[in-house]
Structures are given as structure tokens and as C-alpha cells.
From TrEMBL, chain A:
Organism: Cricetulus griseus
The keyword Endoplasmic reticulum is annotated on this UniProt entry: no
Principal subcellular localization: mitochondrion
Record's bilayer topology term: Single-pass membrane protein
Protein's name in the database: ATP synthase F(0) complex subunit f, mitochondrial
Keywords carried by this UniProt record: Acetylation, ATP synthesis, CF(0), Hydrogen ion transport, Ion transport, Membrane, Mitochondrion, Mitochondrion inner membrane, Phosphoprotein, Transmembrane, Transmembrane helix, Transport
Transmembrane segments: 56-76
Membership in a protein family: Belongs to the ATPase F chain family.
Cellular compartments annotated: Mitochondrion inner membrane
Top-level taxon of origin: Eukaryota
Length: 88, 257
């Protein structure tokens, strides 16, 4: 073991690069674990940007921007044909 | 009333102890069970944060800029953004289509509207929120006041219990008065009855006396009348006539004079 703190309890930012595969495999991949992970992510975002007294537009804006980027990635396959030059 | 609820709850808690160990006293099991040992998290509920996480350009959270600051300084993320966008454009990972121009116009319009009216819309929504919160606060205050009133009333009732002896004193006095009145009333009635009997005896005696007197008088009269014989009656009448004549003469003589 390269570190003294057990691997299980470290957060992602403290995990060293070599230990990353082990750390990922250690996570909870049961259905309830996955659902829990999504719930936690949603709660973190919600409580940080939306569930505040004076929320700003950026709370929704970031979600919309992420959706735009995601849909662009999905439809890249068809958009490839509209390129102006074939070789870059 | 609240004390009764506490007592019934204590009795309900004491029931399992009675089932398990008859030898234990009623207070022993309650002494060993400890409640509320952990720290009370989220109680009272922590207030909502005032502002959300900071976001630059409405899109990128501040943490990203802080993450790059030690290595690249202030302009790092902007240079990264410029470089990335130029790279996507030149390699046509981002393809310029007619949709690009509509995107640019929409985004420009959105930015303009948000910059111009964002603050006022924010204030309006804040006002709505505050009204909602004020309503809930009102309900909470009303509930608190209600419970406080109930507590005060309970205390007043408990204080009243201390003063029950006044009531009992008054009742005792009333009963004593009623007894006295009844006693005197009966005493008076007894006195009247006795007087009645004595009066009866007196009136009986009086009546007998009167009857005897009357009887004696009648008897005397009867004997007197009986003793006046017939002849004596004639003599008496003649004398009366002679006397009357004399008197008449005297009267005539006087009237002439």
C-alpha cells in the first residue's frame, strides 16, 4: 500500500493516479448503489445552485448548456457530413 | 391536563418492565434506558444559504477557475477556453451550420434579456418567496402561541387546585348555617306544641268554671221565681199600682206649677 489511510475511505481527489482502477472497482455497483450515486449527485447540485434564497439563472443555465453539449455529441455522426472541408 | 398525559406515558412505559421482571422496582428499567444520546443533527433545521455557488459567465462554476489559478493565474481558464474553441472550429469538431447563426442570435437575445431584466425578476420572485415564508412563519407563531396559552392555562389550573380549600370552607359554613336554622325551627315548633297543650288545659278549666257559674245562676233564678208565690205576686202588683198613682199625682201637681 502506498498510503497509510485505507483506500476505501478516500475521496476521489485524494486518490493517487495509480490507485484509480482499484478505487473505481471498490465502488458500490449494485442497483441501489447506482441509484444512490445519482441521488447524491442530484442532491449536491440542487442544494448548491437551486435550493438557495437568491438563486441565479446559472443554476438552470448550466443544466441547459450540458444538455446542448450532450445532444451535440449525440448528433455528431450526422453533422459530420455537413463539414465544409473533408481534411483538416 | 398535560401532567396526566405524562403520567399515562410513564404508565405505558412501565408495562413491559412489569412483564419482564416482577422483582425489579418500577423505576429501575427507566433509569437504565437512556434517550437522546446522539448530537441532534439538522435540528433545528439549518437556514437556507443566501446565495448559490458562484458561476462565471453563467456557465462555468468558480471552482474551475480556482482549480487552475495556482498553475496558470487569472487568465488561464479564459486562454484555455479560447484555445479550445479555436481548436474545435479549425478541426471542425464543431461544424458551422445554419443552426449556428440561430444559436448565436438566441444566445445573444437571452444574454440581453437576462442582463436587463434579471434583477427585477429576481426581486419579484424574492417577494413571492418572502410572502410564502411570512405565511408559514405566521402559522408557526400561531401554533407556538396556542401551546403557550395551553401551558399558561394548565399552570393557572394547577394554581387553582391549591385554592380549593376556600370552596370547602364556604360549603362547610353553609351546612353549619342550615343545621342551625333547622335546629332553631324545630325548637320553636316544640315550644309552640307545648304551649298549645297547656292552652288547651286552661281553656277546658275556664269553660268548666263558666258552665258551673251559669248553671248556678240559673238554679238561683229558678228557685227565686218559684219562691215568689201567687199571693205575694198580687200584693206586689197592687202596691206598685198605688205607688204609680201617687207618682202621677205628684207629677200633675208639679206640671201645674
Amino acid at each position: 500500500m502506498a498510503s497509510l489511510v485505507p483506500l476505501k475511505e478516500k475521496k476521489l481527489m485524494q486518490v493517487k493516479l495509480g490507485e484509480l482502477p482499484n478505487w473505481i472497482l471498490m465502488r458500490d455497483f449494485t442497483p441501489s448503489g447506482i441509484v444512490g450515486a445519482f441521488q447524491r449527485g442530484y442532491d449536491r447540485y440542487y442544494n448548491k445552485y437551486i435550493n438557495v434564497r437568491k438563486g441565479s439563472i446559472s443554476g438552470i443555465n448550466m443544466v441547459l448548456a450540458a444538455y446542448v453539449v450532450f445532444s451535440y455529441c449525440i448528433s455528431y455522426k450526422e453533422l459530420k457530413h455537413e463539414r465544409r472541408r473533408k481534411y483538416h | 391536563m398535560l401532567s396526566r398525559v405524562v403520567l399515562s406515558a410513564a404508565a405505558a412505559a412501565a408495562a413491559p418492565s412489569l412483564k419482564n421482571a416482577a422483582a425489579l422496582g418500577p423505576g429501575v428499567l427507566q433509569a437504565t434506558r437512556v434517550f437522546h444520546t446522539g448530537q441532534p443533527r439538522l435540528a433545528p433545521v439549518p437556514p437556507l444559504p443566501e446565495y448559490g455557488g458562484k458561476v462565471r459567465l453563467g456557465l462555468i462554476p468558480e471552482e474551475f477557475f480556482q482549480f487552475l489559478y495556482p498553475k496558470t493565474g487569472v487568465t488561464g481558464p479564459y486562454v484555455l477556453g479560447t484555445g479550445l474553441s479555436l481548436y474545435f472550429l479549425s478541426k471542425e469538431i464543431y461544424v458551422i451550420t445554419p443552426e449556428t447563426f440561430s444559436t448565436i442570435s438566441v444566445v445573444g437575445l437571452m444574454v440581453y434579456v437576462i442582463k436587463k431584466y434579471g434583477a427585477s425578476i429576481g426581486e419579484f420572485l424574492d417577494k413571492l418567496n418572502e410572502e410564502k415564508i411570512a405565511q408559514l412563519e405566521e402559522v408557526k407563531q400561531a401554533s407556538i402561541k396556542q401551546i403557550q396559552d395551553a401551558i399558561d392555562m394548565e399552570k393557572a389550573h394547577q394554581a387553582l387546585v391549591q385554592k380549593r380549600h376556600y370552596l370547602f370552607d364556604v360549603q362547610r359554613n353553609n351546612i353549619a348555617l342550615a343545621l342551625e336554622v333547622t335546629y332553631r325551627d324545630r325548637l320553636y315548633r316544640a315550644y309552640k306544641e307545648v304551649k298549645n297543650r297547656l292552652d288547651y288545659h286552661i281553656s277546658v278549666q275556664n269553660m268548666l268554671r263558666r258552665k258551673e257559674e251559669e248553671h248556678m245562676m240559673d238554679w238561683v233564678e229558678k228557685h227565686v221565681v218559684w219562691s215568689i208565690s201567687a199571693q205575694q205576686e198580687k200584693e206586689t202588683i197592687n202596691k206598685c199600682i198605688a205607688d204609680l198613682k201617687l207618682l202621677a199625682k205628684k207629677a200633675q201637681a208639679q206640671s201645674v206649677m
